[in-house]
Fold this sequence. Notes:
Layout: E1 2-6, E2 15-21, E3 25-26, H1 28-36, H2 40-46, E4 57-62, E5 65-73, H3 80-94, E6 101-105, H4 116-130, E7 151-155, H5 159-184, H6 192-199, E8 208-212, H7 214-220, H8 223-229, E9 237-244, E10 255-265, H9 285-299, E11 305-315, E12 327-329, E13 335-337, H10 345-360, E14 365-369, H11 373-379, E15 384-388, H12 391-404, E16 408-410, H13 415-419, E17 428-429, H14 437-446, E18 454-458, E19 464-465, E20 475-476, H15 481-491
Parallel strand pairs: 1-7, 2-5, 2-6, 6-7, 10-11, 10-14, 13-17, 14-18, 15-16
Antiparallel strand pairs: 2-3, 4-5, 8-9, 9-11, 12-13, 15-18, 19-20
Helix pairs in contact: 3-4, 4-5, 5-9, 8-10, 9-15, 10-14, 12-15
This protein binds ligand BES, manganese (II) ion and zinc ion.
Amino acid sequence: MKITFANLALPSKGSIAIGVMEERKLLKLGKQLDRSVGGLLSSAMASSRFTGKAHQSLSVFTPKGRVVLYGLGKGENIDELWAEAAGGNIRAHLAGSGESEVSVVFEGHPGAGKEIETRAARLAYGAVLRAYSFDKYKTKRKAEDKPTLKKMSVLVEGHAKARARFKDLSEIATGVALTRDLVSEPPNVLHPESYAERCKSLKDVGIKVEILGEAKMEKLGMGALLGVGQGSRRESKIVIMRWNGAPKGTDQQPVAIVGKGVCFDTGGISLKPAGGMEDMKWDMGGSGVVVGLMRALAGRKAKVNAIGVIGLVENMPDGNAQRPGDIVTSMSGQTIEIINTDAEGRLVLADALWYTKDRFKPRFMVDLATLTGAMMVALGQQTCGYFSNDDALSDNIAAAGKATGEAVWRMPLGDEYNKMMDSDVADMKNAGARWGGSVTAACFLERFVDGMAWAHMDIAGVTWSAKDKPTVPKGGTGWGVRLLDRMIRDNYEA
Ligand code: BES
Ligand code: MN
Ligand code: ZN
């Protein structure tokens, strides 16, 4: 969808979206518009349940075209996130309406305060995020089922400023869309080899891309990651992406983001049940966030040195697959007894984290992984549980979560949990008892960060959505790109 910004005025053609305060109160331009169509807006409101409550919407057909009335409520909650949601909702309201363009009349409501341009930019951003769709495999969609809305103009005082604000946001949205594309692709198309290949396109935006194959990983001693992939016909890969955005001459230590990229998780020899197994195509969701985040950072030319590392494998049952009972040696030298081949994500991350720490000595590492079903049991699909050994890093994640509306909740680590991962025959085992499964998984990962500031985000519940949300259409959510981009922007840029 194309976005433009222009001066605040009533447009002379095309559909219009305009805010209404609670108790059906039109603002200045709203009143003017209502008069120009003989009071149709007022009478439509009077004969409907539309009262102007926050996020209500009503289409009114006038001789001048469609007018979408949008509820502002009492106006007191209208902040940046509110505006994003409104943009998403307006987009959804009109997506398949037959309208091809809409002008959003962004009048400041009484008490709107300053920085209305920022909210106008956020509204456009929300609309773009909601307009995402993944339909490349639908060959039979009829024209009348396709979205019609192609263009949104946001009319606001200070439109030049709004346009400038939107620039970076639009780059972030591009990153989110890339993540959504990756998690939506079917596993026959997106496997470790093709995925690594696809990452090379990031070179176009100035990211350095390096790929490690199995031979190189064997030399490095990555027995944990390689064990997971050994039952697959596809070669396991590690992709290293580097964005060097810190100003020349500054000697900025990089930040590092690491992602689980299990392109398909059958469970391996500890095979998963058939029902819902197709969901395990998005078991590469963590890696997808890393790729989308790198795209976002490069797109908006973030003044940061950032490393993205993703471990790409396919977890398959096979004559050559890893067995429960196997003992593997990780790059760190620590040995791991495989109890359950379905606890594979932590094995991939163990080597990816150690490698990242060893080679880049970053300021901190954050990993993202669709790691445990237990996290979905704990927090559902609304909130991502995260773990950290560093309070400052943890606070930064929490603040960015608040700022972006991507909700997070800190979970505990601790010796008692950690002990549950000790093995009788090796340094540790890859699966512990049933209870506290997300916590013990995080404790396992902590054994591979060597005391470095680190956080682990278990995104199992938030990576895929079965229903539409204001700025997230159902399907792959791209959850985490916005949060981490914001976290880096607010704390780690020069
Ligand atoms: N990829 C799964 C976790 C998962 C499940 C993510 C459902 C999203 C939705 C992970 O590899 C896994 O299988 N974890 C096991 C760990 C157990 C064997 C210790 C789990 O959660 O059951
Ligand atoms: Mn698994
Ligand atoms: Zn998995």
